[in-house]
Amino acid sequence: MSGCVVAPRLSTRQIRAVVRLVKGEVDREELDRIAGSTNSPDIVRQLRRKGIGINMQRIDALDRDGRACWFGRYSLTPNGRLAVQQWGWSA
Q1: What percent of the chain has pLDDT over 90?
Q2: What angle do CA 44, 49, 55 make, to 5 degrees?
Q3: How far is CA 86 from CA 8, 34, 90, in A?
Q4: Which domains does the chain show, CATH number per domain?
Q5: Of 39, 44, 72, 81, which cross-links 28 as Cys (Cβ 3.0–4.6 Å)?
Q6: Residues 59-77, buried b or exposed e (16+ Cβ, 10 A)?
Q7: CA-CA distance, 38 to 28, in Å (whole number)?
Q8: What is the mean pLDDT of residues 8-13?
Q9: Which of 18, 2, 21 is nearest to 10 (CA)?
Q10: Segment holding 58, helix H or strand E
């Protein structure tokens, strides 16, 4: 079976995160809600270990008290998108 790419085994949280990432960039808080976790950066780390390229853009913001802070915005890299598409997943 030349050219066949086998998808890695993913948890349900990882699957929900990948399904959302296929649709486009997503902020950390939204990814937490979608994945069903309060630690989506760890889910992203796990997915990267499985070979899914994911970018993280640092977005400057202000918290509710007006203090400077930042949050992550995630998106698939071109290679990450290609890997997911080779598994038969697409938007």
Answers
A1: 80
A2: 45
A3: 12, 23, 9
A4: 12-86 (1.10.10.10)
A5: 72
A6: eeeeeeeeeeeeebbbebe
A7: 9
A8: 91
A9: 18
A10: strand 54-62
Q: What are phi and psi of 2, to 5 degrees?
A: -65, 140
List pLDDT tens digits, range 41-54. 999 999 999 999 99
Tens of pLDDT, residue by residue over 18-42, are: 999 999 999 999 999 999 999 999 9
| Cross-strand bridge partners of residue 68 | 62
> CB under 8 Å to 44, separation ≥6 — which residues?
17, 31, 54, 56, 74
The CA–CA distances, whole Å, from 18 to 39, 59, 69, 71, 76 equal 15, 21, 26, 19, 9
Residue 73: closest CA among 41, 35, 38: 41
Kindly report the pTM of this predicted structure.
0.85
- Give the HSE-up count for residue 14: Cα atoms under 13 Å, Cβ half-sphere: 18
